[in-house]
Amino acid sequence: MYFHLAVLFSTIVVPIVVKIFKALGIGAVTYVGINQVMSVAASYIESQLGGTTVLMQSMLGVAKIDVAINIYLAAITTRMVLSGMNKLTGRKKDFVLKA
Q1: What whole-number distance in Å separates Cα of residue 39 and Cα of residue 28?
Q2: What pLDDT score does 89 carry?
Q3: Can you give the pTM of this predicted structure?
Q4: 7 CB-near residues (< 8 Å, 6+ apart)
Q5: pLDDT, one tens digit for every residue, the chain (99 residues)
Q6: What b/e readout covers 18-33, taking b as 16+ CB neighbours within 10 angstroms?
Q7: What is the pLDDT of residue 63?
Q8: What angle do CA 35, 83, 70 make, to 5 degrees?
Q9: Alpha-carbon Rg of the chain, whole angstroms?
């Protein structure tokens, strides 16, 4: 009786727990890495835009360049997350996003 439970535990439960821990570890490292890269990129862009003249800043504000930059950074983040999810599951991509 106990032998069957031990076999069940070692063949089913242990691999599931290992996969969950791997996924959480990869997810945490990926989140921290993406967050760090995006914050550095956003601060660099802000510093470059902050060095322009007041007239240029007002023109960029009217053109909503800040919104466009945020959309672009969000698209990059989404692309990295989807790419990471496909690599984690091991499946082939069903579709390919091309610019």
Answers
A1: 16
A2: 56
A3: 0.55
A4: none
A5: 677 777 777 788 777 877 777 766 666 666 777 788 888 988 898 888 888 888 988 898 899 988 998 899 888 888 877 776 555 555 555 556 565
A6: eeeeeeeeeeeebeee
A7: 92
A8: 45
A9: 22
The residue to which tokens 């009786």 are assigned: 1
Q: Where in the chain are the domains?
A: 14-83
Per-residue tokens: 89? 């599951």
**Tokens of residue 9, six digits:** 């535990």
Integer Cα distance of 48 and 69 in angstroms: 13
Distance CA 33, CA 15 (A): 27
Q: Reduce the secondary structure of 35-75 to three states and give it as a string.
A: HHHHHHHHHHHHHHHHCCCHHHHHHHHHCCHHHHHHHHHHH
**Residue 71 token pair:** 């959309």
Block residue for tokens 């290992």: 18
Record the tokens describing residue 87, joined without a space. 């690599």
